[in-house]
Amino acid sequence: MKKIMILGAGLVGRPMALDLADDKDISVTVLDQDPVRLQTFDKKDISTIRADLNDTGNLKKILDPCDAVISAVPGNMGFKTLQAIIGTGKPVVDISFFPEDMFLLDDLAKTKNITVICDMGVAPGMSNLLVGNGYKHFDRTDSIEIYVGGLPKVRHYPWEYKAVFSPSDVIEEYTRPARFVRNGKLVVKPALSDPALIYFEKPGTLEAFNSDGLRSLIKTLKVPDMIEKTLRYPGHIEKIKVLKKSGFFDTEPVRIGLNDIKPLDFTSQLLFRQWKLARGEQDLTVMKIIISGIRKGTPETWEYNLYDEYDPVSGIHSMARTTGYAATMALRMLLAGKYSNPGINVPEMIPQSDGCVDFILNGLKKRGISYILDIRS
Predict the structure, then answer these.
(1) Beta strand pairing status for 185-189 and 178-182?
(2) Structure pTM?
(3) Nearest 5°: phi and psi at 187?
(4) CA 53 to chain centre
(5) Residues 294 and 348 in one domain
(6) Could you give the number of structural domains in the chain?
């Protein structure tokens, strides 16, 4: 019986725990400091521990009996938490969207002789893995385009947006500079830049903007043109730009009465009450990945498409499923011994081990998540 610990019992952590608990050879324990979140596991075959995940010293003691870890903490504490996990010598799959360079922990992971997979969600995550799969099969890869978004199925004024992630992580998409590659050179532009309208069969026309979703692909792949864009319903970008321009995302405290308050903290609390998906509220995830280059001496384009919706049977939101199950399948891959590479790994490395891409895609398909590949010459 493998003992797995999941750090974070939020809208993604919970589906991951429920998914892994279905395996007879896995025992699941969930850690979170919020007792209300932990109470959702009552009457489930899942153990819970109330713990402050910021207390890395205590965290090391708690993780001692486990065999592997999934980290689903907010990005602002992701790097420190991952460092603590690696220090315990436990293999880990991480989905926290932290801004620090993950490869700074590579030497530590190699010293502990453990495999660490970072950014293993839907995007970054599956987007990187599928790009890496195309890159492996192409003689020469000329361009990569990634378009991805999680949206409510029903649009409500004023934001027409809902989220399953922590408010700080969502706002990071609007504030962190977007990095992409043009003509072999790194380009940095503000998030929300270069808006464009793109039509999808489902859910229709969406608005795309530059975001910092390429992540490790900038370092790991040699491709002259690479870009990632986030998708929202048309009109969303302008509303966010007004907030940003007006200072609502600033981190410098502002004196209000007798208190000093960071505008970003205030905005996060206010917006996330409106952005949080309610139980039973339907959402969707849409992603398009376009990989173009030369394969077997002939120009070829691979296009992966994902369209996924809220599952009314399980009551699990689409973004939580597409993110969480990517991580749980990666963990199963590690437990099965199909992938082993001590150090810091990112999803685009996984295709280098034969059979791993099919293992993950087949596992996702069994859970109702299908990535459709269209190949054009």
Answers:
(1) antiparallel
(2) 0.93
(3) -120, 135
(4) 19
(5) no
(6) 2
Examine the pLDDT at 43 and tell me if it is beyond 70. no
Which among 309, 330, 347 is the end of a domain? 309
Report the DSSP beta bridge partners of residue 270.
none
Average pLDDT over residues 313-331: 96
CB 347 within 8 A of CB 121: no
Cβ 117 vs Cβ 264: under 8 Å: no
Query: If we measure between CA atoms, which residue out of 362, 230, 371, 358 comes closest to residue 308?
Result: 371
Residue 374 falls inside a structural domain: no
- What type of residue sits at position 21? A
134 and 103 fall within a common domain: no
7 vs 59: CA distance, rounded Å: 10
pLDDT higher than 80, residue 261? yes
Q: 110: domain range? A: 2-121+318-369
Give Cα separations from 150 to 51, 156, 232, 307, 320 (angstroms). Answer: 30, 15, 8, 10, 10
Per-residue pLDDT averaged across 18-38, rounded?
94
Inside any domain, residue 361: yes
CA dist list (Å): 227 to 125, 143, 158, 287, 305: 15, 8, 29, 14, 16
* CATH code, 35: 3.40.50.720
The answer to whether residue 17 scores a pLDDT higher than 90 is yes
